[in-house]
Every structure is written in structure tokens, then in C-alpha cells.
Amino acid sequence: MTRITEQSSRYDNLETKSVEELTRYINQEDARVAGAIKEALPQINALITQIVSKLSAHGRMFYIGAGSGGRLSVLDVIELPTTYGVEPGRVNAILAGGADRLVEALEEKEDDVNEAWAKLTEANISPADIVVGISASGSTPFVLEGLKKCRENQITTGCIVSNPDSVIAAQADYPVEVITGPEFITGSTRMKCGTAQKMIFDMISTTTMIRLGRVQGNSMVNVKLINDKIVDRAVLMLMNKSGISNYAEAKTLLLQHGSVKAALEAFAPKYI
């Protein structure tokens, strides 16, 4: 296994550089991320297709991860119930050390070889579900042992890693290898690797929710009405899609039915 993520930075003597030089160099490195993801799109598409299949059949998805990648997966997951109205528990994230300690950098927990499977077992994991491991290095023990146990129990696995031919990818039925190259600060995978992970999480969750029917046209018609800003956005969305011209009328209909989609189904079924 080649640890590209640990190779020396293309830049040196950083402490001698100006602010303008540093930001230009970081931007140059960030520009490589989208290209690396483009190369991995076939793998990403295969993983998403399997996730959609599992969720369509009433299964669940679990991310397991540690460090920056694990924390980013938690942030993605917690947005989904509000943005798409999907019920909590359909898409999940298990973070080394516990998601309730998200703001703590419990990096030592990535060496725990038992916690991931213990947490999955507590969640009653089954072959109806899919588990996706997150590891920039492709060797994180927390993730590796979790995926091994999943495969032993006939549970479909995927992964997102940033080194080729990793031990974690070998345990994944649907591996995604996004090779972003050496980091600007040698070994600091919170940078390009983290950016790539965030972009892929967005791809996975957004594409999956669209395929599951949680989006109409280009609109979040299942968004939860949790604050005034979202209610206003949803009212305007309903007016646009239904042809209702009166704001107060649209708002009343929206609040009566609880979502744009439900309001459209009640008011104008042809729009669904």
C-alpha cells in the first residue's frame, strides 16, 4: 500500500511565505480535489446505486469513521431529516469516541478495534443495511475492523479512502478511492482529503435523496418547517409550484399539511 497522504508536501519553508503566497498555494492544491473526484465517479456511482437500493428496500445506511472524515460524516447525516424530511435513523454516522463528543478531537479512539462493531450491533445492523467506512489513510483500525465484521456477517460494505490499494478498500464491496495527493501541510489530511470527503458526502446524500423521491424538480419539497426562514422558503416554493398567488393562502395550506409535497398533493395532485 502506497501512503500518498503521508508523502512530503510539494511546498517547503512555509514559515517564510507571505499570506498571499500561502493562500495561493493552498488554493492551487484545493483545485486538484475536483479532478480527483472526477476520476473516482464510476466508483462513487456504484456505491450510491447500492445505497439507494438498500434504502429503497427499507434498509439503512451507516457511516463509520474517525477523525476529520468521521466528524464530517456526522455533520452530513444530521442535515438530512430537516432538508429532506427523511426519518431519523435511515442514514446514520458512527464516530470513534461517540458522535456526542463531536467537538473533541479524540484521535486516539481511531485505534479502538471493537467500538465500531459494538455500536453497529447496538443498532441491530443486518444484511438489509449498508455500512460505509471513512478513512483518509485507508488503514484506520476502527474502520477496518468494523468493515471486517460486517463482511463476516454478510452486510454490504463501502468505503471512501485517499490511498490506493488500501486494506480498508479490500474489505469494501464498493470502494471509493479518491487520490488527492500529498497535503499542503505534510500528513494533514483535514485539508484536501477532508475537502474531498465533504464533497463526496454531498454527492451521496443529495443524489440518494433525489433518487428516493425527496426532491421535486429542483426543490426541497419535503423540507421540515422548523423556523421562519424555512417556512417562508416553503411558502414561496408552494406558490411557485401550485400557482397560488396569495401568500397567506399558501402559508395556511402549507402549515395545514406540514410540507410542500403534502400541500401540493392536497391542492393540485397533477404537480406531484
UniProtKB/TrEMBL annotation:
GO terms for molecular function: carbohydrate derivative binding; carbon-oxygen lyase activity; ether hydrolase activity. Coiled coil: none annotated. The keyword Lyase applies. Residues 51-214 form the SIS domain. One of its GO terms (biological process) is peptidoglycan turnover. PROSITE patterns: SIS. This is N-acetylmuramic acid 6-phosphate etherase.
